Amino acid sequence: MSLEKFISKARTSWMSSDGPDSEIVLTSRIRLARNIQSVKFPLLFSKEEADNVIQQVEDSLLKQSDQSIRELELLAMSELNTLEKRVLVEKHLISPQLADQSPYGAVILSEDEELSIMINEEDHIRIQCIKPGLQIDEAFKEADSIDDLIEKKIDYAYHTEMGYLTSCPTNIGTGLRASVMMHLPGMVLTQQMSRIIPAIQQLGLVVRGIYGEGSEALGNIFQISNQITLGRSEKDIMEELKSVVTQLIEQEKGARNALAQTSNIQLEDRVFRSYGILRNSRIMETKEAAKCLSDVRLGIDMGYIKNISKSILNELMILTQPGFLQLYAGEQMNPNDRDIRRASLIRERLKLEAE
After folding, report:
1. What pLDDT does 5 receive?
2. Which DSSP state fits 38?
3. Does residue 312 come out as left (phi exceeding 0), alpha (psi in the -120 to 50 range) or beta?
4. How far apart are CA 244 and CA 179, in angstroms?
5. Are 275 and 207 in contact (CB under 8 A)?
6. Residue 44 neighbours by CB distance under 10 Å
7. Which residue from 68, 145, 267, 307 puts its CA 20 to 30 A from 233's CA?
8. What angle in degrees, to the nearest 10, is found between the helix axes of 322-329 and 82-90?
């Protein structure tokens, strides 16, 4: 494996695989925040201290004889340029904070890119596992097994009453963030999201955009995750999230059925107009691309469009981001040039799919 492998292909395993309820739930993600006993938090320590943390984590995983560990590779942020880091963010392999604010950070990635262990981000260790569809329990099982392996070699900062100690107080306790990425065009088109989001937040969950905190819900894609980690068990957190997600799935299905019954021709027209824009545009901004890709994906799910795979749209969702566009161009590009390249890339990809 090499850096080239992780940044050269837009498609990862979660994009090309169908999981449970994958027409609505794109991914399930588990993240575990951990810190090393008696070591300063990353915001406070020196390069030498940061290197020591990286070495400890590397030794606990990459130098294990355990045959159950999948093939892993470590990438240091200091060895990546801005564009390479941006691509890893766009693929959900690292956080924007690790890319932009962690000069002594690193990430350990699995070959299939489902597993990501960020080092020296906000916390010393953040274990992340992403699965396609609604697979919260499966993602937790894998993240938890990696957590156990690391803990065999490293003493975690842990308090008997407060649980795992973290840099941000909101992560103290289990250190668990469970989240799902959902495609909810039906609820957006029927104007339900404005009342649903406050209701979700009252349950201790949070709704964010496609790239987490501070990001927009581009293409009708929303992240739903737990907000409270203290005083709750991992099981309770995941069960509550699954309960809410299950209700959202049913509401989204209901919204799509209502649209099909009351506005079928209008919805079909919207889908094929967006498909036509994607097939023929010469200039396309990120927001417009996300909106049109969302419409076409909805059209595939509802049976209007039959000759395009959903996995292609998942791929284009990442491939049309600014980092990937510039990576494939082999140069830095201004916004207008990126918009031209984005339209060209989408046309080429959809033409190949239709042939």
Report:
1. 64
2. T
3. alpha
4. 11
5. no
6. 9
7. 68
8. 130
Task: Return the H-helix or E-strand segment holding 313.
Answer: helix 310-319
pLDDT for residue 4? 67
Torsion sign, CA atoms 293, 297, 299, 304:
positive
Q: Is the separation of the CB atoms in 241 and 205 below 8 Å?
A: yes
Has this prediction a pTM greater than 0.85?
yes
pLDDT at residue number 15: 67
Beta bridge partners, 115, equal 129
Q: Provide the residue type at 237 as one letter.
A: I
CB 319 within 8 A of CB 349: yes
Structure tokens that stand for 273 in this block: 């107009």
Coil, strand or helix at 154: coil
Residues with Cβ < 8 Å from 249, sequence gap 6 or more? 21, 24, 25, 134, 182
CB 99 within 8 A of CB 83: no
**Amino acid letter for position 218:** L
Compute the distance between CA of residue 286 and CA of residue 288 in angstroms, rounded to an integer.
6
Compute CA distances 240 → 196, 204, 226, 322, whole Å: 16, 9, 9, 35
pLDDT higher at 133 or 43: 133
Q: Are residues 1 and 113 in contact, defined by beta-carbon separation less than 8 angstroms?
A: no
Residues facing residue 177 across a β-bridge: 31
Asked if the model's pLDDT at residue 274 lies above 70, the reply is: yes
Cα 210 to chain centroid, rounded? 7
* pLDDT tens digit sequence for 56-76: 999 999 876 555 567 899 999
- pLDDT of res. 1: 45
Q: State mean pLDDT over 37-56.
A: 92
Q: What band does 271 get if pLDDT is binned at 50, 70 and 90?
A: very high
Q: 3-class DSSP state for residue 273?
A: helix
Identify the pLDDT of residue 43: 85
Shortest CA distance to 132 belongs to which of 23, 215, 230, 238?
A: 23
The CA-based angle 2-134-192, given to 5 degrees, is 120
